[in-house]
Structures are given as C-alpha cells and as structure tokens.
Amino acid sequence: VTRTIEARPVDDTKNAMRWEQRSIDVDHVSPQSVEALGLVVNQQKLQLHLCRRLEEIADSLPKALDRGLALQASAALPHCRAAHVGLQDGVLFKMARRRMGKEAEGRAMISQLEDEHARDTDHAYEVADTLETLGRGGALTNPEMLGYMLRGYFESQRRHLAWETAIALPVIWRCFDRPSMAELHRRVRSQVGEHSLEAAIAPLMAYRATAP
Ligand SMILES: [Fe+2]
Q: If residue 32 lies in a helix (H) or strand (E), which one and from where to where?
C-alpha cells in the first residue's frame, strides 16, 4: 500500500518562488521516515534563511551595506556548505546510490546534484571571503560586482533547493525500504546531531542591524 508523508513546507517569503507543502509517495511510512525527511527539509530551510540574508545585503548595496550582517553571513556560509554537503553527499546520496544499483536515471540525478554541490561550495567560499573583508571594514570598491556575486550564489541555491525538494527527495525516498530507511534515519540523525547547523548559524538568524 502506497501512502504519503508530508515534507514540512520550505518557506521563503521574500522570494517570488513559492514552496508548498508536498507529499512523497512511499510504501514504508514510519515515524522514522517522517523524522528523517523532516531533518533534511529543516536543514534546507536554514539554507534558505541564509539566502534571504544574502539578498538583504545585495539589496542594500551600494549605500546601506551593513558590515555586521556581512560578517555574520561570512561566518555562516562555510557551516551551511559543510552541513548541506555532509548530509547529502556524505549520507543520503551514498546510501541512495547503493539502493539504486545500476538504475541510470537515479544515479545521473545524484551525480548532477553532487556536481552542483562542488561548484556552489567554491562559489560560497569566494562570497564568504569577500563578505568577511567587508565585515572587517574593507573598502567596498565594486558594489556592482558584489551584487552580481551574491545574487549568483543565492539564486543558484534557491533553484538547487527547489529542484531537490520537488524532484530528488521523492525519488530518493522511494528507493528505501523499511529496514534501510531505519538505517538512513539513524545516520541522518547522527550527522545532524554532530554538526548542528542551527547552532552554528544562530548569530546570523538572530542578527538585527544596529543603529547607524
Ligand atoms: Fe543539495
């Protein structure tokens, strides 16, 4: 019997892209599969929170740059990348690839996502270095280029996360049966627990601009 589990909605109110609560058809609905999916989706929400803050910086250019926000975002970026890639490449895709065997479409999809992770991680470090320099008082010499760099990163991230949520996660979830889902759940929990993204980016989430 195929039933559905509900992914928690990924809400990105500032962006025009709408994320809606969706169902994933699986035949092994269990509290463990729901919790594991919730942890993965929750981590994506934190990535979107970072995207919103990067958009705030881009929108503030050239005259209203908040250097405190730039510094907090530069500190959060590496944590976001490490958590996303660690959970997906390191746990989810590794196990899914084994479950898929030789199934070509699923393997191609995972390879595409891994390529995007590698590219976006390089881009993220460039953005983080630039924001850190500005956060520490460096001169804003080329605001147009900074805006272009920031928008390139967060728009690419939003597309990546939307595609993952709509296409990749349902395909991946369906290739797990109950016993392998229990193992995935254990590993996802362990990965999320070891690298608490929520704690790492809490200063960015809580950041409020100080009076000029
Ligand atoms: Fe991803």
A: helix 31-60
Q: How far is ligand 1, taken at its centre, from the CA of residue 114, in Å?
A: 7
Convert the pLDDT of each residue in 120-153 to its tens digit: 999 999 999 999 999 999 988 999 999 999 999 9
Alpha-carbon gap, residue 11 to 15, rounded angstroms: 9
Rounded CA-CA distance 87/187 in Å is: 9
CB-count exposure of residue 1 (10 Å: 0-12, 13-18, 19+):
exposed
How much distance in Å is there from the Cα of 79 to the middle of ligand 1?
A: 14
How far, in Å, from the CA of 153 to the mean position of ligand 1?
A: 13
Beta carbons of 33 and 185 less than 8 angstroms apart: yes
Distance between Cα 136 and ligand 1 center (Å): 30
Q: How far, in Å, from the CA of 208 to the mean position of ligand 1?
A: 28
Look up the pTM and report it: 0.85
The pLDDT-based confidence of 91 (bands split at 50, 70, 90) is very high
Ligand 1 centroid distance, CA of 22 (Å): 18
